[in-house]
């Protein structure tokens, strides 16, 4: 599981 | 989107609206830390620059615009319109001690060394400590208006719900963002002392006063 920045979160 | 993130966003929205209405209706920002509100406006400004570059959903865009609008309106009320009611003598937290380390850390620990990503990381780290001036001010005045405690409760609850949202997304989507999670844990921990007082005092109809 690669960390990824949440683009859809406020 | 999951129920935890949705209720988290609504809790955050409730907090922002409660504060704005409290200041607007009472025509007073007594007991409110202007410094924390400036930090929150900075958090939203640096986090939501992607409003200009990408469209994710109507919900996403609408909420971002509301958050930015309300936070700037709150800062405007505190420092311009209702400046006479601002309690500057008790709002003395040295915010430079927050901004400088957070700014440095955003450069060192981030997902991608690009301007938008650095600013997003800065906003995540800053948000986790942005409430400190407000909590510091309450410890100095020794009390908080009940409406202010409701504001703080929903504000603290929102990130706690986001923590559950991240557990949910890890389990169902294999997603996790260490930066947001660590900052979110720190942010929620800072509220624990307040949550204890809120539950044991305010929910029993008492006024929130310190020392407990």
From TrEMBL, chain B:
UniProt GO MF annotations: ER retention sequence binding
Subcellular localization: Cytoplasmic vesicle, COPI-coated vesicle membrane; Endoplasmic reticulum membrane; Golgi apparatus membrane
Keywords for the protein's UniProt record, in alphabetical order: Cytoplasmic vesicle, Endoplasmic reticulum, ER-Golgi transport, Membrane, Protein transport, Receptor, Transmembrane, Transmembrane helix, Transport
Transmembrane segments: 65-82, 119-139, 151-172, 178-199
Pfam families attached to this UniProt entry: ER_lumen_recept
Cellular component per GO, a single term: COPI-coated vesicle membrane
Membrane topology: Multi-pass membrane protein
Entry superkingdom: Eukaryota
BP terms from Gene Ontology: protein retention in ER lumen; protein transport; vesicle-mediated transport
Primary localization: membrane
Family: Belongs to the ERD2 family.
Protein name: ER lumen protein-retaining receptor
Upper taxonomic lineage: Eukaryota, Metazoa, Chordata, Craniata, Vertebrata
């Amino acid at each position: 599981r690669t960390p990824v920045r949440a683009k859809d979160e406020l | 989107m999951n129920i935890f993130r949705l209720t988290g966003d609504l809790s955050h929205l409730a907090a922002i609206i409660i504060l704005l209405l409290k200041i607007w209706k009472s025509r007073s920002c007594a007991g409110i830390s202007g410094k924390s509100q400036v930090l929150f406006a900075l958090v939203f400004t640096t986090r939501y620059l992607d409003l200009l570059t990408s469209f994710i959903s109507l919900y996403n865009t609408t909420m971002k615009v509301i958050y930015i609008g309300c936070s700037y309106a709150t800062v405007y009320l505190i420092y311009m319109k209702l400046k006479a009611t601002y309690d500057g003598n008790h709002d003395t937290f040295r915010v430079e001690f927050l901004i400088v380390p957070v700014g440095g850390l955003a450069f060192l620990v981030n997902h991608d060394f690009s301007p938008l990503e650095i600013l997003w990381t800065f906003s995540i780290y800053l948000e986790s400590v942005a409430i400190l001036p407000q909590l510091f001010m309450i410890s100095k005045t020794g009390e908080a208006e009940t409406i202010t405690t409701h504001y703080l409760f929903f504000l603290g609850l929102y990130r706690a719900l986001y923590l559950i949202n991240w557990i949910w997304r890890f389990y169902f989507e294999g997603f996790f963002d260490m930066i947001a999670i660590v900052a979110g844990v720190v942010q929620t921990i800072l509220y624990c002392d307040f949550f204890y007082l809120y539950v044991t005092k305010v929910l029993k109809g008492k006024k929130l006063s310190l020392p407990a």
